[in-house]
## 1
Amino acid sequence: MHDLSLSFLLIFLLAILFPNWLFGQFFPNPSFEGPRGSHLSPPPWKPCERNSTPDTQPGAWEVTKLPTDGNSYISIIARGTHGPASNTPEDINIKLNRDLLAGHCYSFSIDLSMSTKFGHTSSIGWINYDTPAVLKIYGGNINCEEAELLWLSDPISNSNWETLFFTLRPTEESIKYIRLAADYHNAFSYYGNILIDNIQTYTEKVIYTIAMDTIVDFGDTLHLSASSGDAYKWSSENQLSCSDCREQLLVVKGSGSYVVEIEDAYGCNFFEEFMVEIRYDPELLFVPNLITPNGDGANDHFEIRGLPDRSKLEIFNRSGKLVYSKDFYDNSWNGQETNGRSLPKGIYFYKLKSELFSQPYTGFIEVIK
């Protein structure tokens, strides 16, 4: 019992002193807690390149800025043309608590800054690492691998801490290791530094999911509800009740899929697909046999009741010549050719096709003027 109490006390103290370290979802030690000093990496973070010697700050190389979280943070540099390690940027690497999966979108935040005082003396005098560098985030399946560049920042020129939100979308394989690397921006080499603190995890989204796969009767009302997000963009070959809303309320007249692109508050874009198959009763179909397109509002158009979405209508004259065709017929034909020219009164023949029909429907339609 005594040992168990000590264990709980230790966990409680760790949770108070290093909350992000203990409960970080993906990154061990996400606020880079560790002994401060030059050439010291906070465990379990480690450098990859031979000349990479990250520093745990503040206190090294004239850096005095306070952390944004916990008691310490790291600095990595881009070296210029002088010295034995010239023209080499620094990096630091970590094995994640759990993999970043290919086909998922992950949103994070990170606190970044640079120090205008970062520097040291050398054989050529004082060297100031005051040119903004960029931060690259690589992912890999083995330690220090650069299998995929997951994110590239703009040059870090702010001398005060700024919190940046970014997304990681592994495309080729799942990611076990993350590598943070300083690099040059639009130049071969120069002296620059990046200060890094407090990586936070916000969301994990599967980029593409099947949200529904269902069979409904023709003419049923269908309610589609997308997952929570900040913005929506729907697409479908069938009719939509809206294009940028979260929910669709539809009278279903055709099989097909409805796809919505969702953007969350942290910039992750993901897709959900709703697949719908229609059961169609042929008795629902009613095709009139005459129209009177005289503009009086009665029988002006060839209106087919029970018309499935994406039906194709073809109209032929007595000689069998195709005079009108519309792939997505919308009950709009009023006795005109495909080019809009008015047809003479008389008997015409129609062919109505749909993926819901076992064979085309055919018959005649009389145009009375």
## 2
Amino acid sequence: MVTVRTSEFKVKVYDFLVRENPGKGGTVNHMSRIPLVLVLMAGALVAQAPPDMPKADPLWPGAAPGAQGTQDEDQPTLAPYVVPQGRGTGTAVIVCPGGGYAHLSMDKEGDQVARWLNSIGVAAFVLKYRLGPKYHHPVELGDAQRAIRTVRYKAADLRVLPDRIGIMGFSAGGHLASTAGTHFDAGNASASDPIDRVSSRPDFLVLCYPVVTFGQFTHRGSLQMLLGDNPDPKLVENLSNELQVTPQTPPTFLFHTTADTTVPVENSVQFYMALRKAGVPAEMHIYERGPHGVGLAPTDAALSSWLARLADWLRVRGLLNAAAK
């Protein structure tokens, strides 16, 4: 009998994934060498919620659209971190953890982030979205859009404002967030489900060391998990989100490090330049040092200052001003 510590196994599998997919140096072939059982085990383990995480609610009352089973991995959920009455700003953020579209960093890029947002008066909702290789686009985008619509539809009950709902993503979760910010609709007025009648456009984006492009500087493992082995080039282009920015793209905050060898900093730079060209308000902070996947960077005094920069940006945009609820 072999005993494996779950936390240790998760780290080792994740490290293998990123070493074999180092941004522009990696290839789809590298990802294909990873035994499928390891990818599936990593997803099952890392997507587990921290023990003190709030109870997550299913995004759909029954089976989610396109569900291929009834296991936990087939059911996208949203965990609410609601600010106590009288302490909130009326702003809400849907948090998309990263993990290469193969697993989810629910603690470091989910629970911890949500609790920090609560500390500045922002309600947070951690999204557990469906993953590859079992699920491909547009399932993940559909999960993110449903999360935005759900929070907007329930805004009054959640003590948030329907025009202060942003989406935040880390790594591949940043790709999902940037996709939601460049691929949205006003809702279907004739839908039988009232949630589907609500707009899926986020009011702002927060992208942290995000995968953005599926071009030269992409993270190949994320591309393969989301689109499969031989995706249509037109779909690859459509989901290279730096190419999809318009004046309607929401205001955006970006954070990255130059030393990131997993998701090259060019992902953030290209998105920022596209936002600037389109006249969309944007702020970008690039740190010289720091590896990929730092989360809140609690052990790095310099890098952890990105949180203060984000709080400043939210404050300047009026998103930390308390509103009557």
## 3
Amino acid sequence: MKKLFIFLFLLGMVSRGLLEGQPSTGSLYSAMGLGTIDGNGSGKTRLLGGTGIALPSVGYLNNSNPASFGAIEDLKFMFEAGFEGQSTTYTTSDLQQQFSSTNFNYLAMGFQFNTYWKSSIGLKPFSHVGYNITTSKYIEGTTQTYDTYFTGSGDVTQLYWSHAFVPINNLSLGINVSYLFGSIQQEESVIPPVTYKEEVLTRTKYVKSFYTDFGVQYTFEREKMNVTLGAIYGPGKQLGSKSEFSLTNSYDTIRTETVEDATKYSLPQKAGAGISVRSKNNNFVLSLDYRWEDWENVKLERMDAYLKNSNRYSLGMELVPQKTLNDPYLRRIRYMLGAYYNDSNIKYKGTAIQEMGMNLGFGLPLRGGTSSLYFGFEGGQKGSTNLGLVRENFYKFNVSFTLSDTWFQKHKFK
């Protein structure tokens, strides 16, 4: 019970930090809808290319598929947290700019109600918005110009409670109930010549909504290997939201108004499938995922770009030379490698925005091998400089840890 109170305290502190906001992204491609969706899983699965649909939660928590929690060991209590640093270089045909940030990644705990019912509670960023766009236009009938600045910032956070049910051996059925909350601020500033007043239109959109998605995993046991098949599904949904508008000029506030949104943010229908191959002692893991999202049926307020269905392919591999406590420490380190290709949901001027990257990670055993510290690197590219677009070259550094303990166990000291 003490562990639970500690976790809830940390959850509250992290929630407060998220609500106060943080500069979590600087991508121009986050200007549409909810922004850039964070769907790459938890700390360890991020190092495996974002795979996880067919990976059971053996020794760590995998929030990519709620059915994975069916593998949590009996009487085990698990706690995880992760952080991420990012440096991005934005390149156009004639300009280059850099952005960097360090952010909270996720917080989660996993436990069992009984042998057939396992669960996990966690908090993680769901989407990020962060952009700054400048345009210049002529004042009609004159040779004078004025600048318009479009900026956006904010995050939507996901508080989830996942349940995995194990009706028979090797089969796990999962359901994930989430509460999405946060705010996204969009600001349009008109900077005219000195003879005119500066005007700023600010819209803050508040999102609060529940969402449910599902998953399944089934494991085929072989003599030397375990093969797991996994699948996930989430229905499309309109999110509840309201907007606050504020119009100001150089001297005062002209008007402030709060209204229910006529155009709601929407989540697409989504589905995914995966397969993993694991040695009996988990010294070797190979995983492959495919994810599809139906963005074509999601309406946007921006009309200069439109959404298309996205397809994401990812591959991950993990190797541990030796695993027993009697082996040298260096031979018990986990080595992880991953890669992914994302044909994203954005299409601009007929050009699809694509993203690709690679991961390299290490897992250091702690506390007799029941807990671990993970750290890894990711490098990738999104977009191109064609048709006046922006190419993003990014580098990320991930740190996370998994602490594992046993419920109701009394420690004896001699």
